[in-house]
Protein backbone atom coordinates (compact mmCIF):
# COMPACT_ATOMS: atom_id res chain seq x y z
CA UNK A 1 0.00 0.00 0.00
CA UNK A 2 1.13 3.52 -0.65
CA UNK A 3 1.98 5.54 2.43
CA UNK A 4 0.95 9.00 1.21
CA UNK A 5 -2.61 10.12 0.53
CA UNK A 6 -3.28 12.89 -1.98
CA UNK A 7 -4.68 16.16 -0.62
CA UNK A 8 -5.13 19.55 -2.30
CA UNK A 9 -1.90 21.56 -2.47
CA UNK A 10 -3.31 24.52 -0.54
CA UNK A 11 -4.59 22.27 2.26
CA UNK A 12 -1.24 20.52 2.35
CA UNK A 13 0.61 23.81 2.67
CA UNK A 14 -1.53 24.79 5.67
CA UNK A 15 -0.91 21.45 7.36
CA UNK A 16 2.80 21.67 6.67
CA UNK A 17 3.05 25.10 8.20
CA UNK A 18 1.97 23.61 11.52
CA UNK A 19 4.31 20.65 11.16
CA UNK A 20 7.29 22.79 10.36
CA UNK A 21 6.57 25.12 13.28
CA UNK A 22 6.76 22.12 15.59
CA UNK A 23 10.00 20.98 13.99
CA UNK A 24 11.62 24.36 14.44
CA UNK A 25 11.06 24.16 18.21
CA UNK A 26 13.69 21.42 18.21
CA UNK A 27 16.33 23.49 16.46
CA UNK A 28 18.36 24.35 19.56
CA UNK A 29 19.59 20.78 19.88
CA UNK A 30 23.19 20.05 19.01
CA UNK A 31 23.02 17.84 15.95
CA UNK A 32 25.49 15.26 14.74
CA UNK A 33 24.00 13.61 11.65
CA UNK A 34 24.36 9.89 11.11
CA UNK A 35 27.52 8.86 9.33
CA UNK A 36 27.38 6.79 6.17
CA UNK A 37 28.10 3.51 7.91
CA UNK A 38 25.68 4.25 10.76
CA UNK A 39 22.88 5.01 8.33
CA UNK A 40 23.36 1.63 6.67
CA UNK A 41 22.42 -0.25 9.84
CA UNK A 42 18.91 -1.59 10.46
CA UNK A 43 17.16 -4.67 11.79
CA UNK A 44 18.53 -6.79 8.94
CA UNK A 45 21.96 -5.24 8.58
CA UNK A 46 25.35 -6.53 9.57
CA UNK A 47 27.99 -4.28 11.08
CA UNK A 48 29.29 -2.01 8.35
CA UNK A 49 33.05 -1.53 8.44
CA UNK A 50 33.63 0.55 5.32
CA UNK A 51 33.15 4.14 4.18
CA UNK A 52 32.47 5.09 0.58
CA UNK A 53 35.40 7.21 -0.67
CA UNK A 54 35.03 6.93 -4.45
CA UNK A 55 31.77 6.98 -6.40
CA UNK A 56 32.50 7.29 -10.10
CA UNK A 57 34.06 10.73 -10.59
CA UNK A 58 33.34 11.82 -7.02
CA UNK A 59 35.98 11.52 -4.27
CA UNK A 60 34.60 11.70 -0.72
CA UNK A 61 36.30 12.65 2.56
CA UNK A 62 35.33 12.26 6.22
CA UNK A 63 36.66 13.56 9.53
CA UNK A 64 36.42 13.11 13.28
CA UNK A 65 35.72 10.06 15.42
CA UNK A 66 32.21 9.81 13.92
CA UNK A 67 33.57 9.91 10.37
CA UNK A 68 31.32 12.80 9.37
CA UNK A 69 31.11 13.52 5.64
CA UNK A 70 33.03 16.75 5.00
CA UNK A 71 34.09 17.00 1.35
CA UNK A 72 33.22 15.94 -2.19
CA UNK A 73 35.55 16.57 -5.14
CA UNK A 74 34.44 15.76 -8.70
CA UNK A 75 37.10 15.32 -11.39
CA UNK A 76 39.13 18.21 -9.98
CA UNK A 77 36.44 20.46 -11.50
CA UNK A 78 34.52 21.42 -8.39
CA UNK A 79 34.42 20.70 -4.69
CA UNK A 80 31.79 20.85 -1.96
CA UNK A 81 33.01 21.24 1.61
CA UNK A 82 30.76 20.95 4.66
CA UNK A 83 31.17 22.51 8.10
CA UNK A 84 28.99 21.52 11.07
CA UNK A 85 27.78 23.98 13.69
CA UNK A 86 24.98 23.19 16.13
CA UNK A 87 21.89 22.29 14.13
CA UNK A 88 23.27 23.61 10.83
CA UNK A 89 25.49 22.32 8.06
CA UNK A 90 27.18 24.93 5.89
CA UNK A 91 28.34 23.81 2.45
CA UNK A 92 30.72 25.75 0.21
CA UNK A 93 30.65 25.02 -3.53
CA UNK A 94 33.93 25.89 -5.24
CA UNK A 95 34.62 25.85 -8.99
CA UNK A 96 38.15 24.45 -9.11
CA UNK A 97 38.33 24.88 -12.89
CA UNK A 98 37.58 28.61 -12.64
CA UNK A 99 40.32 29.92 -10.35
CA UNK A 100 38.67 28.41 -7.26
CA UNK A 101 35.69 30.73 -7.59
CA UNK A 102 33.05 30.13 -4.93
CA UNK A 103 29.75 29.58 -6.74
CA UNK A 104 27.35 29.10 -3.86
CA UNK A 105 26.86 28.61 -0.15
CA UNK A 106 24.53 25.85 1.01
CA UNK A 107 22.81 25.95 4.40
CA UNK A 108 21.01 22.92 5.83
CA UNK A 109 18.98 23.26 9.04
CA UNK A 110 18.39 20.04 11.00
CA UNK A 111 15.82 19.03 13.60
CA UNK A 112 16.58 17.10 16.80
CA UNK A 113 16.53 13.81 14.86
CA UNK A 114 19.26 14.99 12.51
CA UNK A 115 16.86 15.35 9.57
CA UNK A 116 17.04 18.35 7.27
CA UNK A 117 13.96 20.56 7.62
CA UNK A 118 15.17 23.51 5.53
CA UNK A 119 17.87 24.12 2.94
CA UNK A 120 18.98 27.18 1.02
CA UNK A 121 21.49 27.38 -1.81
CA UNK A 122 22.51 30.94 -2.52
CA UNK A 123 22.67 32.45 -5.05
CA UNK A 124 21.93 29.40 -7.24
CA UNK A 125 18.41 29.03 -5.86
CA UNK A 126 16.68 32.17 -4.68
CA UNK A 127 14.34 30.37 -2.31
CA UNK A 128 14.34 28.14 0.74
CA UNK A 129 13.30 24.49 0.44
CA UNK A 130 11.28 23.00 3.30
CA UNK A 131 11.16 19.25 4.06
CA UNK A 132 8.50 17.17 5.80
CA UNK A 133 8.85 13.55 7.01
CA UNK A 134 6.53 10.75 8.10
CA UNK A 135 6.58 8.91 11.43
CA UNK A 136 9.22 6.55 10.01
CA UNK A 137 11.53 9.52 9.31
CA UNK A 138 11.08 9.15 5.55
CA UNK A 139 10.85 12.21 3.33
CA UNK A 140 7.27 12.97 2.25
CA UNK A 141 7.45 16.45 0.77
CA UNK A 142 9.97 19.09 -0.32
CA UNK A 143 8.60 22.47 -1.33
CA UNK A 144 9.47 26.10 -2.00
CA UNK A 145 8.82 27.85 1.31
CA UNK A 146 7.46 30.97 -0.41
CA UNK A 147 5.54 29.16 -3.18
CA UNK A 148 4.40 25.80 -1.72
CA UNK A 149 2.87 24.61 -5.00
CA UNK A 150 6.43 24.24 -6.33
CA UNK A 151 7.15 20.90 -4.73
CA UNK A 152 8.15 17.24 -4.91
CA UNK A 153 5.90 14.61 -3.33
CA UNK A 154 7.32 11.26 -2.19
CA UNK A 155 5.29 8.05 -1.93
CA UNK A 156 6.33 4.76 -0.32
CA UNK A 157 5.19 1.14 -0.54
CA UNK A 158 5.52 -1.61 2.03
CA UNK A 159 8.44 -3.95 1.33
CA UNK A 160 7.61 -7.55 0.34
CA UNK A 161 9.02 -8.85 3.65
CA UNK A 162 6.89 -6.39 5.65
CA UNK A 163 9.95 -5.11 7.52
CA UNK A 164 9.95 -1.59 6.12
CA UNK A 165 8.89 0.59 3.21
CA UNK A 166 10.68 1.88 0.12
CA UNK A 167 10.39 4.97 -2.02
CA UNK A 168 7.91 4.19 -4.79
CA UNK A 169 7.55 7.49 -6.64
CA UNK A 170 8.47 11.16 -6.69
CA UNK A 171 6.20 13.66 -8.45
CA UNK A 172 7.34 17.15 -9.42
CA UNK A 173 5.09 20.23 -9.63
CA UNK A 174 5.87 23.80 -10.64
CA UNK A 175 4.82 27.00 -8.86
CA UNK A 176 1.51 26.96 -10.75
CA UNK A 177 0.70 23.45 -9.49
CA UNK A 178 1.33 21.92 -12.93
CA UNK A 179 2.55 18.31 -12.89
CA UNK A 180 5.95 18.26 -14.58
CA UNK A 181 7.15 14.70 -14.18
CA UNK A 182 7.04 11.53 -12.12
CA UNK A 183 9.83 9.08 -11.28
CA UNK A 184 9.00 5.49 -10.31
CA UNK A 185 11.40 3.18 -8.45
CA UNK A 186 11.77 -0.61 -8.43
CA UNK A 187 14.17 -2.58 -6.23
CA UNK A 188 15.96 -5.91 -5.92
CA UNK A 189 13.56 -6.74 -3.09
CA UNK A 190 12.38 -10.29 -3.77
CA UNK A 191 9.26 -9.25 -5.68
CA UNK A 192 7.67 -11.98 -7.81
CA UNK A 193 9.65 -14.71 -6.13
CA UNK A 194 13.05 -13.27 -7.02
CA UNK A 195 15.97 -12.78 -4.67
CA UNK A 196 16.47 -9.74 -2.47
CA UNK A 197 19.71 -7.77 -2.23
CA UNK A 198 20.22 -5.21 0.53
CA UNK A 199 22.00 -1.91 0.01
CA UNK A 200 24.49 -1.82 2.89
CA UNK A 201 26.03 1.50 1.79
CA UNK A 202 23.08 3.67 0.70
CA UNK A 203 23.29 7.14 -0.78
CA UNK A 204 20.40 9.48 -1.49
CA UNK A 205 18.50 8.93 -4.76
CA UNK A 206 19.40 11.18 -7.66
CA UNK A 207 15.80 12.37 -8.03
CA UNK A 208 15.44 14.57 -4.97
CA UNK A 209 14.78 18.25 -4.46
CA UNK A 210 17.34 20.44 -6.18
CA UNK A 211 18.78 21.64 -2.89
CA UNK A 212 19.71 18.18 -1.58
CA UNK A 213 23.02 16.36 -1.65
CA UNK A 214 23.61 12.74 -2.68
CA UNK A 215 25.94 11.94 0.22
CA UNK A 216 24.62 13.90 3.22
CA UNK A 217 22.67 11.37 5.35
CA UNK A 218 20.14 13.95 6.52
CA UNK A 219 17.10 13.24 4.35
CA UNK A 220 15.89 10.00 5.91
CA UNK A 221 15.98 6.45 4.57
CA UNK A 222 14.53 5.61 1.18
CA UNK A 223 14.95 1.84 0.87
CA UNK A 224 16.85 -1.09 2.35
CA UNK A 225 17.32 -2.64 -1.09
CA UNK A 226 19.44 -2.04 -4.15
CA UNK A 227 17.73 -0.04 -6.86
CA UNK A 228 16.76 -2.13 -9.89
CA UNK A 229 14.97 0.32 -12.18
CA UNK A 230 13.78 3.91 -12.47
CA UNK A 231 11.09 5.07 -14.87
CA UNK A 232 11.00 8.80 -15.55
CA UNK A 233 7.72 10.08 -16.98
CA UNK A 234 7.91 13.64 -18.26
CA UNK A 235 4.44 15.14 -18.58
CA UNK A 236 5.04 18.79 -19.38
CA UNK A 237 7.39 19.83 -22.16
CA UNK A 238 6.88 23.25 -23.78
CA UNK A 239 6.21 22.73 -27.51
CA UNK A 240 6.82 19.03 -27.08
CA UNK A 241 5.16 15.74 -26.21
CA UNK A 242 5.27 13.67 -23.02
CA UNK A 243 8.20 11.29 -22.83
CA UNK A 244 9.28 8.27 -20.81
CA UNK A 245 12.80 7.15 -19.95
CA UNK A 246 13.67 3.80 -18.40
CA UNK A 247 16.95 3.05 -16.62
CA UNK A 248 17.99 -0.42 -15.45
CA UNK A 249 20.80 -1.03 -12.94
CA UNK A 250 23.10 -4.01 -12.42
CA UNK A 251 25.77 -4.39 -9.76
CA UNK A 252 29.04 -6.16 -9.08
CA UNK A 253 29.43 -6.79 -5.35
CA UNK A 254 32.56 -7.29 -3.27
CA UNK A 255 33.33 -10.87 -2.25
CA UNK A 256 35.07 -9.84 0.99
CA UNK A 257 31.94 -10.40 3.08
CA UNK A 258 30.87 -6.76 3.13
CA UNK A 259 28.53 -6.92 0.09
CA UNK A 260 29.87 -3.51 -0.90
CA UNK A 261 29.07 -2.34 -4.42
CA UNK A 262 32.17 -2.46 -6.63
CA UNK A 263 30.49 -1.17 -9.77
CA UNK A 264 27.13 -0.04 -11.13
CA UNK A 265 26.11 -0.30 -14.79
CA UNK A 266 23.14 1.72 -16.02
CA UNK A 267 21.36 0.76 -19.26
CA UNK A 268 18.33 2.16 -21.05
CA UNK A 269 15.25 0.18 -22.07
CA UNK A 270 17.02 -0.90 -25.28
CA UNK A 271 19.98 -2.33 -23.41
CA UNK A 272 22.35 0.50 -24.34
CA UNK A 273 24.88 1.31 -21.61
CA UNK A 274 24.35 4.82 -20.29
CA UNK A 275 27.03 4.78 -17.61
CA UNK A 276 29.39 2.49 -15.74
CA UNK A 277 30.92 3.63 -12.47
CA UNK A 278 33.20 2.09 -9.88
CA UNK A 279 33.08 2.51 -6.13
CA UNK A 280 35.88 2.29 -3.60
CA UNK A 281 35.81 2.12 0.20
CA UNK A 282 38.05 2.54 3.21
CA UNK A 283 37.95 1.30 6.78
CA UNK A 284 36.64 4.15 8.97
CA UNK A 285 38.52 5.46 11.97
CA UNK A 286 37.63 3.77 15.23
CA UNK A 287 36.32 0.50 13.78
UniProtKB/TrEMBL annotation:
* Annotated protein name in UniProt: DUF4595 domain-containing protein
Which organism does this sequence originate in?
Dyadobacter chenwenxiniae
